[in-house]
Amino acid sequence: MKEESIFLDYVGDSPRMRILQYIIEGRDFDYTLTDMLNAGVSWGTLNVLVPKLLELGVVIKTRKIGRATLYKINKNNIAAKQLIDLYDNLILQELGHLEKSSKKKVRVPA
């Protein structure tokens, strides 16, 4: 069963947005291309999209470990900042809705 994503509901469930969601969720970490396969995209798709995201400046190379290059979201890029803000706000909104619905279900005896 596929897990639902509030972020992908708003921006569209495409391979590019899956990759961006994955690196936004772990924005304090850097990832190899192999790690990014966990975003649910194919190896071929990663090899096409990551260079494009690098070109746009949304993703940056952080370091190399052996033959592996690591990447992360570029928090200094204005588009990346806006995507991060959108992601955070959607999560907070969803948490607010869940909190309200759970308060309605809980009845405190008088």
**What name does the CATH topology carry?**
Arc Repressor Mutant, subunit A
CATH class: Mainly Alpha
What is the ordering of alpha helices and beta strands? HHHHEEH
Query: How much strand content do the residues show?
Result: 5-15%
Radius of gyration equals 17 Å
Number of strands: 2
Mean pLDDT: 90
Instruction: Describe the sheet with the most strands.
Output: 2 strands, antiparallel
Oligomerization category of the chains in this entry: single chain
Kindly name the structural category. mainly alpha
Instruction: Output the CATH homologous superfamily.
Output: Winged helix-like DNA-binding domain superfamily/Winged helix DNA-binding domain
- Poorly predicted regions are none
**Count of alpha and pi helical runs:** 5
Distance between the termini: 42 Å
Helix content: 55-70%
Query: How many domains?
Result: 1
Describe this protein with a few key phrases.
110 residues, mainly alpha, two-stranded antiparallel sheet
Describe the protein in words:
There is one protein chain. This protein is mainly α and 110 residues long. It has one domain: Winged helix-like DNA-binding domain superfamily/Winged helix DNA-binding domain (Arc Repressor Mutant, subunit A), CATH 1.10.10. Helices cover 57% and strands 12% of the residues. The protein is built from five helices and two strands. The protein has helices spanning 6-11, 15-25, 33-36, 43-56, 78-105; strands at residues 59-65, 68-73. A two-stranded antiparallel sheet has the order 1-2. The protein is elongated and about 65 Å long. It starts with 5 loop residues before the first helix and ends in a 5-residue tail after the last helix.
